Amino acid sequence: MNSELIGTFVLPDEKLGEMNSNSMKVGNGLVISNGSLVSSKCGILRFKNPDKYWIDNNQKRYTPIVGQPVIGFITQKVGTEYLVDLGTNIPAVLSFFGFPGATKKNRPQLKINDTVYARIIASNGTEEPQIVCMDKNERASGFGQLEGGYCFKCSLNLSRKFLQPRNKILSYLGKKLKFEIAVGVNGRIWINSGSVQDTILITNAIQRTEGLTEKPARKVINMLFDNMM
Amino acid sequence: MKRQQLSTNEQNFVGSSLISGRRIDLRSLNEIRDLSISFGSKYGQVMVKLGKTKVISSIQATVAQPFKDRPQEGFCRVRISLSNVSTIDIESNRKSQSDTLEIQRMIEDSYRESRVVDLESLCIIPDIWVWEIVCNVHVVDNDGNISDAANIATILSLSHFKLPQVTIKNGKAIIHTDEEKELIPLSIYHLPISVSFGLFEKGEIIIVDPCLIEEKTIEGRIIMMVNIHEEICSIRKGGGTPLTLDQILYCTKLASEKAKEISLIIDRELEKDLKLKTKQEYDNRHLISSILMKDEQTIKSSLPFPISNSLEETILDKIRNIQSLSWTNKNSTIEIEISELSKFTNLSLNLEQKKDTVQVINQKNVDKSGDEDENENENDDDFEANNNYSDDEEDENLNQRNEQFKEFIEITNILQNQNLSKKELELLNQLNSVSSSNNKTNNEKKESQEIILNNQKKIQNNEIEKINSKKNLKKNENHKPDEIDFSIAINPQFQTLKKK
User: Which of B95, B155, B324, B400 is deepest in the core (most CB within 10 A)?
Assistant: First the structure.
C-alpha cells in the first residue's frame, strides 16, 4: 500500500496504509486514525530511509515547530517579556533573558514594531510559543534585531528553498549585487543592501521567480535589471 | 492576534523609496495594477481582481414597498463586507471595518445622485410594489484599494444583471420565469469609475492605486469617481494632509485618464460575456428544437448515453415549455410559425396516411378576451356535419382510420404516459383492439368515449408533438375544409359524440 503511493499526489482524508509504530515515523501532514495512516493535507507523499514519512505541500500559514529560525515583529512589552508576532494564531513570547549576555541590569533595548530574527525553543499547540535570540551555545550568530532593509511575506515553500545551502537564484543575484538576507521559516524574508533600488530589485526577483527553474528564472531577473537600468 | 501597524523597517523603506520615485512592485507612480474580470453562471455574478485584491459580487432583486414621498422609485443598494480571511497579516479591526462602511456609503450616494440606474424603471405598481436591487460585495483578499475594486464589481454586476418581466392583470402582478419570458437588463445611464490616490510628503507625491503596505504608510487619501464622458460623479477626502487647488486639479486629470482606460476594459469584457450567454441559451434551445424535428428513435440514437424514463419526461416537458415561448429563431422559420400559432389558436391533430408525419392545422383564431364559447358551438356544428357517411365509405374509411388511430395512440402513449393513470392506459390498450373486435358493451363504449375526450382536451391544452415541412402545410391549405375530420373519433360507432 504505502510503497505505491510514495511520490504521488495525495488528497486529504486518504488512507495510506496501516500504522506500524516500529517502522514508521509520522511527519508533516499525516495523522493516525483507527490504526491507519491518513493524510490531512494536499501534497506529494515522501519517504526517507529508514522510516520517515511526510507530505510535501505549500501553504502560507505557519505552525511553530521547535528549533526553526523565524522573523517576528514586536507588538507589545509585558513585564520582562516581549510579545512577538510570527504570523501564527498566538503571538510568541521573547523574554529579556533570551539574548546573549543578558542579566537583570543589562536589558535589551528593543521597541515596538522592531523586527527580530529568533529561534523557537518551545511550542505546544495550545500555549504561546517561546523564542530566543541566541544560538544553542548562547551566541548571537546572526540572531537579534534586524535594522534597516525591507521585510516581505512569501509562502513557506519559498522560504524553505532559500534556506537550502546552494540556492541558484541567490548565487546568481550575488554575482551582480551586494546584499544581506535573513530568511524566516514562517514565510518572511528580510533584505538589506546599499541602495533602495537594489533592495526593490531583489524583492521582485525573489517574488517573481517562485516555482521557476534555472533558465526562466535568469530570464526574468535579466528583464528586471534591464527595466531598472 | 494580528499586528495592527507596520514594522518600522517597512514604513521607512516605503517612504524612502517613494521619495526616490519608485514603488515596491516596480510600478510607476501613475500606474494601475492588472485588472482581470470573470463572470459567473448567473446574471450579476462577477469576480474582479486588481493585482492581488480579489472581490466577488452578486445581486439580489426583491420586491419591496417604496418610500411614501417617492412612490415611483425603486431602490439600488450596495453592501460591502470584509471577512477575516481577507487579511492574514495585519488585523482587520474596527478601523478597517469603518473603512468599508465609508466606501459603501460613497458608492451608494454617488450612484443615487449621479443617477446611474434609472430608479423609475424599477417600479412595478406605484405606491405599492417596487424592485429593490441589492449588490452584495465580498472582499476575499485585501491587498489595498478595496474601493476601486468594489466599485468596478458593483458597476459590472449591475450592468450584467437582468430582471424578470412583470405583467399586471386585474390588479395582480405576475412575475414571469426565465422560460416564459425573456429577462430584461437594467437601464443604466453611465458607468462611474473610482480612482483612489495616495498622498505623501504633504501632497507633493501622489500615487495611483496604492497596495496594502503603501496604504498603511500614506499620510492622506482622496478618491474620485469619474465618467468616461469626463464628468466627475463624486470626490471624497476623509482627513489626512491638506491639498492645494493645483494638486486637486492634477488628480482630476489623472482620474479621467484612468477612468477611460478602465472603462474600455470593462466594456470589452461585458460584451464578451453577454454574447457568450446568449449563445449558450440559443445553443441549448436549438438543441432541443432540433430534437423536436426527429422521431423518438433518432433522438435516442443520437444521444451518446441511454436515457432513463424520468429524463425522457423532463426533456419532453421542456420541449412543451419551449414551444409556448415567444422566442423567435431566424434560421428555422417553421418554429416561428408554430410559436405564433400556439399563442392564438386551439390546435387539433390530423393524421395522414404517412406514418412519420403529424400535421398542424390552424383551426380558428380564438380571441382570449372571451369569445371561446361561440367557437365551441361552431366546432360542434362542423363535427355533426361531417358525420354523414354512407355505408360503403364507412367500410373503406374504417380500415384507414383504425390504422391512423393506432398510430395516434402510440404517439400519445409515448408522449403522455406520465399524464395517464394506469386505468386509462389499460383502456387505451383495449381501444387498440377495438378495430379487430366489433363486439362491445355499452360500458366500454362510454369509458372509451371519455378517454378519447380527455385525450382530445389534453392535446389541445398541450401543444404539438412533431413538425412537418412547409410543403405539407401548403397542401393543407388546398385541402378542403369539408374533408377535415376530427379523426380521433375513427370508429363509426363513436361518431355520435358530442362535446359537453
Answer: B155
